[in-house]
Amino acid sequence: MSDWHSWAAIVVFVGAYTLIISEKIHRVAVALGGAGLMLAIGATDDISAFYSEDSGIDWNVIFLLMGMMMIVGVLKKTGMFEYLAIWAVKRAQAKPFRVMAMLVLITAVASALLDNVTTVLLVAPVTLLVCERLALPSAPFLIAEVMASNIGGTATLVGDPPNIIIASRAGLTFNDFLVHLAPLAAVLVVVLLVLCRVMFRRYFVYDEDRAAEIMALEEREAIRDPRLMVQGLIVLALVVAGFVLHPVLHYAPSIVALLGAGLLVAVAALETHDVLAEVEWPTLAFFAGLFIMIGGLIDTGVVSEISRQLADAIGGNQLGGSMTLLGGSAVLSGIVDNIPYVATMAPITSDLVRDMGGSSDHVLWWALALGADLGGNATAIGASANVVVLGIAERNRQPISFWQFTKYGLIVTAVTVVISLGYVWLRYFTFT
User: Fold this and answer.
1) What's the gap between Cα 227 and its chain centre?
2) Higher pLDDT among residues 195 and 360, named by residue
């Protein structure tokens, strides 16, 4: 990492990250500006930025988001989200914490079956409507749901993109994730609810008049276009089936989402520009810029150097290695998006596993998965779901600042990572 390009890439990334944190310049402008500087200094080039699977823009993420945003945009026109909002509030008797608990549990379970980005795209519009009905600030609810999506996504192979990378490299199955990580994820969701009760307690203000108004509503009256809603739900069900059947169909999630979006636009006879207007284009641009900036760090060897130093610190100690890998991954995934981090760390972990003679119960792989997935909660840009929700909140004129998210994210990440360290130690090194 002695090449000047490496140090220049670090300066660009740190400078961009500092500006994003300060919020003096819009994060999309910072990400695109940082990407331009990475290209200008030669830290990466057009081939790597646009075509490389390792260090370029992850087009699967971009097009998955675009396709799901189009589907969600069509469903919004039907009144379905208003229906779900009224239904959820009535089942929770309009009590704010009960509403949050219900939304958190729904998000966590859905994120285990879908990927966490798709889940927050579906749940966020409902949340905004619920908070509007109850005259509550939406930020605490959206933040809680993002964290639930990242925790719930830890439970399965398809729940979080880093898990797919790990499964492919380590030869792990869907059931392996269920057996080893789902029990911990269930515990962490309960822990998250307890933390939410404490962190957001001042926002749980019960308004009797608002509650009475909502309890008197008939949710079915919120449906504006039943035919379009049925069409949208059928397409959404097909898309979800496509996600779940990925091991059989071998269609990437982005392809499934785009096929679903195209089918829905075709059968619903909607104006294409109306559907495309629902896409969060600034969010997609932010992701593209962020991927190019991180690609600059990868291409100049910065990320691999950090990973190698982590590997050297681990040595041949399996217990110490698992603890270091989990904790180190949590820290780094809060700074660098967890997808490129895991893509870089996976081959290094594979070498560590081989050097340790196979590493019983794949413990190093579970440590990597837990650190990357849970570390994504630490900052506003630590995971894809975080960025998506911030974009949705901003578009609905209820922006969530970097520090507003991160001050809660650091607490949740610290608690869940400590519990995970204890889980790994007890399960794989104490009761074996």
Assistant:
1) 32
2) 195
- Which residue shows structure tokens 């898309």? 239
Residues 356, 348 contacting (CB under 8 angstroms): no
Query: Which carries the bigger pLDDT value, residue 184 or residue 344?
Result: 184
Q: Give 265-321 pLDDT, tens digit per residue.
A: 888 877 888 888 888 888 889 888 988 988 898 889 887 787 677 667 776 678 888
Torsion, Cα of 57, 58, 63, 65 (10° steps): -110
Give how far Cα 134 sits from Cα of 106, 137, 210, 389, Å.
19, 9, 6, 20
pTM higher than 0.90 for the full model?
no
Buried b (16+ CB within 10 A) or exposed e, 32-43: bbbbebbbebeb
Compute CA 44 distance to the chain's CA centroid, rounded to the nearest angstrom: 26
Place of tokens 């392996």: 176
Residue type, 187: V
From 336, 302, 337, select the one nearest 8 (Cα to Cα): 302
3-state helix/strand/coil string of 49-116: HHHCCCCCCCHHHHHHHHHHHHHHHHHHCCCHHHHHHHHHHHHCCCCHHHHHHHHHHHHHHHHHHCCH
DSSP annotation string for 233-298: HHHHHHHHHHHHTHHHH---HHHHHHHHHHHHHHHHT--HHHHHTTS-HHHHHHHHHHHHHHHHHH
Tens of pLDDT, residue by residue over 2-26, are 578 899 999 998 898 888 878 788 8
Rounded Cα–Cα distance for residues 109 and 116 (Å): 10
Residue 374: band (very low, low, confident or very high) from pLDDT cuts 50, 70, 90: very high
344/316 Cα distance (integer angstroms): 20
Residue 225 phi/psi, 5-degree rounding, is -140, 85
Alpha-carbon distances of 421 from 53, 195, 272, 310, 415, rounded to whole Å? 31, 18, 49, 17, 10
Cα 88 → chain centroid: 23
Instruction: Give the position of tokens 């991160």.
Output: 406
For the chain, the average pLDDT equals: 86
- For the CA atoms of 56, 24, 7, 324, the dihedral, rounded to the nearest 10 degrees, stands at -80
Spatial distance between the Cα atoms of 294 and 336, rounded to a whole number of angstroms = 7
